[in-house]
Specification:
Structural class: mainly beta
Number of strands: 38
Oligomer: single chain
Helix content: under 10%
Low-confidence stretches: 1-27
Strand order of the largest sheet: 4-5-8-11-14-17-20-24-27-32-37
């Protein structure tokens, strides 16, 4: 969506990293939506382009261009559902282009259910076929799954999260573009338009690949209507080398008493805040309607988290808390000049505030008690 906004990122310049690599085997030709519920489906789907299904030689699904979702107008591009335990073969998803529009934010392009063998979702080695979609629902959804490596995917202007992680563990995300900026609802009904939304999950490794650039964001999460990273009751995880840039609601949200041992390091916030747009002839703020807006927000008892070498310096032109604990009882509006709008809903409870800040730069205002002195501002 169009925005009149100037973003200054200095050393934190976001760049979509070069794509890693498999030989293009299927030529990226078209294929119908793919559903795998047992090992026999790898043969029946006529979607496997190489591999024997072993750990050392996994099946490769793709590259394919999916021209319509599973239900014709709604559904998924690729779904692997191991709910009945019938999928024991190893496989990777490579170069799936979802070339259709599905405005239902709950419809994922790639969907795993109870997939626990080591699996990669990535783009082909040549960079010719990118796992990608634009203006669809959710990018990747993982339910009760584990050991999934997401790399070099491109989900742009999605209606739902770029990646939705539910009750899953040992998930990595690197070199990816995750932009959810076509909000279907402006109220904070989550998950909605977050770049990464994780609930009841653990051991997430985001931006931890050793080949991530050191002076640029490993994952591109700019221009989201929601949060760049929204973690709910999710623990023992690391977000590294991240830049939340121009996120209309906020940068990093840690929510719930089971959100602990989360480390956000070498990361930054830039240009947070809503943009006034005309919708249905009326000036309307982009982003969620919520009292939890800001650079880093901790709510509902999130505790014992670590922040290291971070820059939560929200520009003065968008007067949101750079670091906050709980809802602050109002939201910011940019329509008609920046002003506070009283919040009429339930004010979010504060975090537990037992967190560690080391070499963290932040700007005022804040509503987090007992912040240490800023290290770099």
């Amino acid at each position: 969506m169009g925005r009149a906004r100037i973003i200054v990122v200095s050393a934190f310049v976001i760049a979509f990293a070069a794509l890693p690599a498999t030989t293009v085997l299927a030529g990226g030709t078209t294929h119908g939506a793919i559903t795998i519920t047992s090992n026999k489906d790898f043969s029946a789907c006529k979607c496997v382009t190489s591999g024997s299904g072993t750990a050392s030689d996994p099946y490769v699904i793709g590259p394919w261009t999916i021209t319509s979702p599973s239900g014709g107008t709604s559904g998924w591009s690729v779904k692997v559902d191991n709910s009945k335990g019938g999928v024991t073969a190893f496989f990777n998803i490579v170069g799936i282009v979802s070339n259709y529009n599905d405005t239902n934010f709950a419809d994922p392009d790639i969907w795993f259910v109870k997939v626990n063998q080591a699996t990669a979702i990535t783009s082909d080695k040549s960079g010719s076929f990118i796992t990608a979609a634009s203006s669809n629902g959710t990018g990747i959804r993982l339910d009760n799954s584990s050991n999934v490596a997401i790399s070099s995917v491109d989900y742009n202007h999605m209606y739902g999260p770029g990646v939705y992680i539910n009750a899953s563990s040992n998930i990595s995300i690197n070199f990816s573009k995750l932009k959810s900026s076509e909000s279907t609802t402006r109220f904070a009904v989550r998950p909605n338009t977050d770049a990464v939304y994780a609930v009841n999950s653990s051991n997430l490794q985001i931006g931890m690949d050793p080949n991530c650039p050191k002076t640029q964001g490993c994952n591109d999460t700019a221009y989201d209507n929601g949060y760049a990273y929204d973690l709910v009751n999710t623990h023992d995880s690391v977000i590294n080398n991240a830049i939340a840039s121009a996120d209309d609601t906020g940068g990093y949200l840690l929510d719930g008493k089971n959100t602990f041992n989360v480390t956000i390091e070498n990361s930054a916030v830039n240009s947070i805040g809503p943009v006034c747009q005309t919708r249905d002839g009326l000036p309307t703020d982009t982003g969620y309607i919520t009292d939890v807006q800001g650079g880093l927000m901790l709510i509902n008892g999130a505790h014992d988290n670590t922040f290291l070498n971070d820059n939560f310096n929200v520009p003065g032109s968008t007067p949101l808390p750079s670091i906050g604990s709980g809802g602050n009882g109002f939201r910011q509006s940019s329509c008609g000049g920046w002003h506070s709008v009283p919040w009429t809903g339930t004010v979010e409870a504060p975090g537990a505030n037992n967190d560690t800040f080391t070499n963290v730069c932040y700007s005022l205002p804040t509503n987090y008690p007992n912040l240490p002195p800023s290290a770099r501002c």
